[in-house]
């Protein structure tokens, strides 16, 4: 008899190993490698070829029509921007985000808008009852006759609802709450999530029904469940925002039908989610007179130029270890900029408390804000305000040089549109030259 061999497979990403290991070599997750009966290579030898079904034969690419998979607008311009123009029929979209950020509210609004144009929409929730969804729909004005609601946690029942309603859009809130009695494990487990997602995506592809799956997130902000889920879907979107502010950002992490560097801006209001077409004034606090310790910059969120004001405060420290407090900017990046200011600009900051923050709660992670942070700290130390019409952007190197950043032309155009006439970027060369160029600017007091 042939010797029966076993293989070890990661339940998160599908990586295979010849022996058991505690950590997956692909996704680096601990405790996800499980034993399987036989390797796929052995099973492949026993699979016999079969004739394809009628209508599914392989065709030349020139004879395949692309009209059936064109983008269809949802009625929300910011969402269409992120998706690449709209929802593609048969596409599988994974929407992730922290609890309470507004995923369900946004998708209910999308479902109502599509149903308003005559299409049938099926909204399945495993977390709320239909009565609770109706209450939210009344508040957000999302009541439509062709919007069907169901509260189910069984996969077979959900498939039955799909056959009965024949929807033009399917929303599952959330994929971790559904389970199939054909698979072992509890709802939300790796095997259940994999089976549920595969079944729903198979129905979406066969019937050309776009399906939106809401996914939970882990403590570090990534999508919960097996990593294979992100490979199965066509689009992965992340809905993020700060609980202390009403602003929300929708980012595309994966998109087979469009770009992955677009960002949609939304605002949480009492009547639901409202799109923000021009967020230029949300992160600026332009008063009547200049204030020391402030500097405006133009950051890039995807392909969108976003003006942001950075504020800095420097005060004498009362402790042996001065504090470095940041909000909205990377703390390690600010520490590097302060070191460059001490070494290249001659500032004495080793005995000063430094506070750096952005206006409006926006988070900046790109290096293009380095120059604005440095100028804000310089302004705070000297207690001299920069010009009211000055904007700065550029990456600061350890040698004190200002390096160019991407989309410089677009940043300048956005600054000009908002009325900024003085622009400091990589053309000034070094931090010392940038400091001298701002020395003669009008000043004011707080």
From TrEMBL:
Signal peptide positions on this chain: none
Presence of keyword Hydrolase: yes
Sequence motif RadA KNRFG motif, residues: 254-258
SUPFAM superfamilies noted in UniProt: P-loop containing nucleoside triphosphate hydrolases (SSF52540), Ribosomal protein S5 domain 2-like (SSF54211)
Residues annotated as domain RecA family profile: 68-217
Gene Ontology molecular function: any one: zinc ion binding
Key words of the record: ATP-binding, DNA damage, DNA repair, DNA-binding, Hydrolase, Metal-binding, Nucleotide-binding, Stress response, Zinc, Zinc-finger
GO BP annotations, alphabetical order: recombinational repair
Region (Lon-protease-like) location: 353-446
GO cellular component, one term: cytosol
Positions that bind ATP: 97-104
Pfam family, one: AAA_25
Protein family per UniProt: Belongs to the RecA family. RadA subfamily.
Cited function: Plays a role in repairing double-strand DNA breaks, probably involving stabilizing or processing branched DNA or blocked replication forks. DNA-dependent ATPase involved in processing of recombination intermediates, plays a role in repairing DNA breaks. Stimulates the branch migration of RecA-mediated strand transfer reactions, allowing the 3' invading strand to extend heteroduplex DNA faster. Binds ssDNA in the presence of ADP but not other nucleotides, has ATPase activity that is stimulated by ssDNA and various branched DNA structures, but inhibited by SSB. Does not have RecA's homology-searching function.
NCBIfam families: sms
Free-text domain note: The middle region has homology to RecA with ATPase motifs including the RadA KNRFG motif, while the C-terminus is homologous to Lon protease.
Protein name: DNA repair protein RadA
Native organism taxonomy: Bacteria, Bacillati, Actinomycetota, Actinomycetes, Micrococcales
Gene: radA
């Amino acid at each position: 008899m042939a010797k029966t061999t076993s293989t070890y497979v990661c339940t998160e990403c599908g990586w295979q190993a010849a022996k058991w290991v505690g950590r997956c070599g692909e996704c680096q997750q601990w405790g996800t490698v499980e034993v399987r009966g036989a390797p796929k290579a052995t099973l492949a030898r026993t699979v016999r070829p079969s004739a394809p079904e009628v209508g599914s034969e392989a065709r030349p690419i020139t004879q395949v029509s692309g009209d059936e998979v064109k983008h269809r607008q949802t009625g929300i311009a910011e969402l269409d921007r992120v998706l690449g123009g709209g929802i593609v029929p048969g596409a599988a979209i994974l929407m992730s985000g922290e609890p309470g950020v507004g995923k369900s509210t946004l998708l209910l609004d999308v479902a109502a808008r599509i149903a308003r144009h005559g299409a049938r929409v099926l909204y399945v929730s495993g977390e709320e009852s239909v009565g609770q969804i109706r209450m939210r729909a009344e508040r957000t004005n999302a009541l439509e006759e062709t919007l069907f609601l169901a509260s189910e946690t069984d996969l077979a029942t959900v498939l039955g609802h799909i056959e009965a309603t024949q929807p033009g859009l399917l929303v599952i809130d959330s994929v971790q709450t559904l389970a199939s009695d054909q698979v072992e494990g509890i709802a939300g487990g790796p095997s259940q999530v994999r089976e549920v997602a595969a079944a729903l995506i198979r129905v979406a592809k066969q019937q050309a029904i776009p399906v939106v799956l809401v996914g939970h997130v882990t403590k570090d902000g990534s999508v919960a469940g097996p990593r294979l889920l992100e490979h199965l879907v066509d689009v992965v979107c992340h809905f993020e925002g700060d609980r202390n502010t009403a602003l929300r950002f929708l980012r595309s992490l994966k998109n087979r039908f469009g770009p992955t560097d677009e960002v949609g801006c939304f605002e949480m209001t009492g009547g639901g989610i409202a799109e923000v077409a021009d967020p230029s004034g949300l992160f600026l606090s332009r008063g009547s007179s200049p204030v020391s310790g402030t500097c405006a910059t133009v950051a890039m969120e995807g392909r969108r130029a976003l003006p942001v004001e950075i504020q800095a405060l420097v005060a004498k420290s009362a402790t042996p270890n001065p504090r470095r407090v940041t909000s909205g900017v990377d703390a390690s990046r600010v520490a590097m900029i302060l070191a460059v200011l001490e070494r290249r600009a001659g500032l004495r900051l080793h005995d000063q408390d430094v506070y750096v923050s952005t206006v409006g709660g926006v988070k900046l992670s790109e290096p293009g804000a380095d120059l604005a942070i440095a100028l804000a700290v310089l302004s705070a130390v000297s207690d001299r305000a920069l010009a009211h019409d000055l904007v700065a952007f550029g990456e600061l190197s350890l040698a004190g040089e200002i390096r160019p950043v991407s989309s410089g032309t677009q940043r300048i155009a956005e600054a000009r549109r908002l009325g900024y006439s003085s622009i400091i970027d990589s053309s000034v060369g070094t931090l010392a030259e940038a400091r001298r160029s701002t020395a003669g600017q009008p000043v004011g007091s707080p």
